[in-house]
Design brief:
The complex is a heterodimer of chains A (397) and B (364). Chain A is of the alpha/beta class and 397 residues long. Helix content of chain A is 31%, strand content 25%. The chains are: A alpha/beta (397), B alpha/beta (364).
Chain lengths: 397, 364
């Protein structure tokens, strides 16, 4: 096969399918390449939260808020049920140290325009019953929501195809050909595709694609383990997180003070209930290479943490567990935009645990950058060049 | 943390035979089973086994079960009951629930002998109380001494359908019809003749069209099938029945093997996706073995031989047998296994097992 496309998107997760859709909407001829199936990687092994509150007040939160706005009408636009639900979200606060950090966090988030408030335990318990009496309060935002990431990938892909995009599943990228520093074609196991634009949306596998273009990308897999319960009547009213890991970002001593496995494995509560009634209980943040196994130690730590914070979970049966790999970057922000060294090579990866929340806005930004050279907000902070020259191994992790 | 040489998951014929063989060699063996009693399906098998003398032909299943239990006890095998294994993690860490609490067991070798489960069949009314697996009905009459109903319609004429029909009649029920979708009877002629002589009508090229009843099964409507397995209108028959038993095959219980990360191959003759193993019953994961129906649905006799094979192989790799001793024992077992896999009912399985083992070689 000898084919050509205006742009080739690599990766069939929530980022790649979103980009394929927004590019197609602008009349760009897109071919999306996915080595396995839609949502077969991290987008099919994560929770369902679209959380704004957890985002760092700054560009991270701005991105998430723009994305959240797009989500409100996305199901209609894509003409597909993506199980979007504006449930609201809450972050549980366990002690005075965390409270201090969260107060500051909330103040700065409000400055950016997020509707978020600090609740007493009594007020929080009215919204979310079953909380532990040892909690000192919670933050709460009505802007947090849910979506089914697998349906989201499918919806974006279907809508893109309707607009003329081609989606090739089971198609691996073997090499990227460049001439005079410009992208010329993509070699796949099913033939060559001529193109001047390649978008690397391969998530945790983005470094392998980068390597083909001579780039060393600062992205590495961070494992998140999640437990699934039996379906139960509505119990988790909102997305429920705990302040531990947010607090730890601003006060690393909170992490250091403990040597228990929960801390070592980066366990932070993430609770949400699917439309079918199953509760997803997460999660860990571990560096374990590309190993996608679950571990007994981590599952235990997740359960202990969850039951300590929300004792109402104690009598619900866990029926499954899984792990997914989050594309981690050193500064917690994705790499969005062109790279300096190879013209036509665009990065769109490294969202770590925020890929679901940032999926629509990422698609919009990348399609804007490709078609107009600019977008609606200043995204220079997300440019891959913030890590310096990416050629060779200078920035190898 | 609790540790053992060899952990065997499943205390059925394969698991117990494996435990006995490994313990005989001197290994410390722990058997885990989610049930409250060991023995798997052996204790409901009140019929005599087929095969040659080495295969305990002529001995009834439950007596074999009793004998295996006695041997495990004599050899000091630890049998943990009410122990539902829910996961096999890195470095052969087994996690299980007993009495609602989480436990772990670290083993040098793991043998998964988890057996098989009965297949279901979908038709209008299939969720009505009174529709059950034939194996479940067999457990009710032979182990719990409870008659599931008075008027039974049996679906499937393999050996399970034939034997359970006969045992239901022995227990006092009436088998109003035995229905087989294929154009000929699936099981041994000797079993079929026995129930036919007892007056059970056998309908071939026939399936269930629907089961009706207010709160439970009250009547069964059957319909004939043409050579393309399509229902032939106007051939419906009505039977008064209070129970429908489904004897439509078994599927290997492979969840743990999937979770552990074993490589699989698809062999319909063995019940679908089955873990690939070598001639030592070792899967594609080092130190993790399989035996019995999990490797492909066969009979208790072959399950026991596979269990012994895994037991000898585990004992050998732990140093309890030298290579020569082990080879002799394994060859004897393979001879008996090959003998079990002959004749019109065994040939297909023989070929299928060859395929399963060669899949392993191709991987290597």
């Amino acid at each position: 096969m000898k084919k050509n496309a205006d742009a080739v998107v690599i990766g069939g997760g929530v980022i790649g399918t979103s980009i394929a859709y927004y590019l197609s909407k602008k009349g760009i001829g897109v071919i999306l390449l996915e080595k396995d199936d839609l949502a077969s990687g991290s987008s099919g092994a994560c929770d369902i939260d679209i959380i704004l509150q957890s985002k760092n007040p700054g560009i991270h939160l701005q991105l998430a808020m723009e994305s959240a706005k797009m989500y409100e009408t996305l199901a209609d636009e894509l003409d597909f049920d993506i199980e979007y639900n504006a449930t609201g979200g809450m972050i549980l606060i366990e002690n005075e140290d965390q409270l201090k950090v969260m107060k500051d966090f909330v103040r700065r988030q409000k400055d950016i325009g997020l509707q978020v408030e600090l609740l007493s335990l009594k007020e929080a318990s009215k919204i979310q019953p079953g909380l532990s009496p040892h909690l000192v309060g919670a933050t709460y935002s009505l802007q947090d929501a849910h979506v089914n990431p697998m349906r989201l990938c499918f919806a974006f892909s279907r809508a893109a195809k309707r607009l003329g995009a081609k989606v090739y599943l089971g198609t691996s990228v073997l090499d990227i050909r460049a001439e005079n520093g410009k992208v010329k074609s993509v070699i796949t196991n099913r033939g060559e595709i001529e193109t001047n634009i390649v978008i690397n949306a391969a998530g945790v596998y983005a470094p392998f694609i980068g390597e083909m273009a001579g780039l060393s990308l600062p992205i590495k897999p961070r494992r998140g383990q999640i437990i699934v319960t039996e379906p139960v009547p509505k119990l988790v009213m909102a997305d429920v997180l705990c302040a531990k890991y947010i607090a730890a970002k601003y006060n690393p001593n909170l992490l250091k003070e403990s040597d228990n496995p929960e801390t070592r494995l980066g366990v932070g509560l993430s609770l949400s209930q699917t439309r079918d009634g199953q509760i997803l209980i997460g999660a860990t943040r571990e560096f374990a290479g590309y190993n996608k196994n679950t571990t007994h130690e981590a599952l235990h730590a997740i359960v202990n943490n969850a039951v300590r914070l929300v004792p109402a979970l104690r009598h619900i049966h866990a029926i499954r567990s899984f792990a997914g790999l989050r594309p981690y970057t050193p500064d917690g922000l994705p790499l969005l935009g062109p790279v300096e060294n190879v013209q036509g090579f665009i990065m769109a990866a490294g969202h770590e645990g925020d890929g679901i929340a940032l999926s629509p806005v990422t698609g919009r930004i990348i399609s804007d950058l490709i078609t107009e050279g600019k977008t609606f907000m200043d995204v220079s902070k997300l440019s891959p060049s913030r890590f310096g020259s990416l050629s060779g191994n200078e920035n190898a992790m | 943390m609790k540790t053992t040489d060899i952990a065997v998951i499943g205390a059925g014929p394969a698991g117990l035979s494996c435990a006995v063989e490994a313990a005989k060699a001197g290994a410390k063996v722990t058997v885990l089973d989610e049930n409250l009693k060991p023995g798997g399906q052996l204790f409901k098998q009140i019929h005599k086994f087929f095969g040659s003398r080495e295969h305990r032909a002529g001995t009834r299943g439950f007596r074999i079960g009793r004998q295996l239990l006695e041997e495990t006890e004599k050899l000091g095998v630890e049998v943990l009951l009410d122990a539902a294994v829910y996961g096999i993690y890195e470095d052969r860490l087994i996690a299980f629930i007993t009495d609602g609490k989480d436990h772990t067991l670290k083993a040098e070798k793991i043998v998964m002998a988890t057996g098989a489960s009965e297949n279901a069949l979908a038709f209008p009314g299939c969720t009505l109380p009174g529709v059950m697996g034939a194996g479940a009905a067999q457990t009710m009459i032979n182990v719990n001494r409870v008659l599931p109903g008075q008027k039974i319609a049996m679906v499937g004429s393999g050996n399970v359908g034939l034997i359970v029909s006969y045992q239901l009649m022995q227990a006092g029920a009436d088998v109003v019809a035995l229905i087989e979708a294929a154009p000929k009877i699936g099981g041994y002629g000797v079993h079929a003749s026995k129930i036919r002589r007892a007056g059970v009508p056998i309908y071939i090229s026939t399936t269930i069209k629907e089961v009706a009843g207010k709160e439970k099964v009250e009547e069964v409507i059957t319909v004939e099938l043409d050579e393309k397995w399509q229902q032939v209108k106007g051939t419906e028959k009505q039977f008064d029945a209070d129970t429908v038993c489904l004897a439509v095959g078994l599927s290997p219980l492979t969840e743990l093997a999937w979770m552990a990360g074993c490589e699989f191959t698809f062999i319909p003759a063995l019940g679908g996706h089955v873990p690939i193993h070598n001639r030592n019953m070792e899967t594609t994961l080092k130190g993790i073995y399989v035996a019995g129906d999990i490797t492909g649905v066969e009979e208790a006799s072959s399950a026991m031989e596979e269990g012994r094979l895994a037991g000898v192989a585990c004992a050998e790799s732990l140093g309890y047998y030298d290579e020569e001793q082990a080879l002799e024992l394994k060859n004897q077992i393979w001879d008996r296994l090959d003998a079990l896999r002959t004749g019109p009912f065994g040939e297909g399985r023989f070929t299928a097992k060859l395929k399963q083992i060669s899949a392993r070689r191709q991987l290597a």
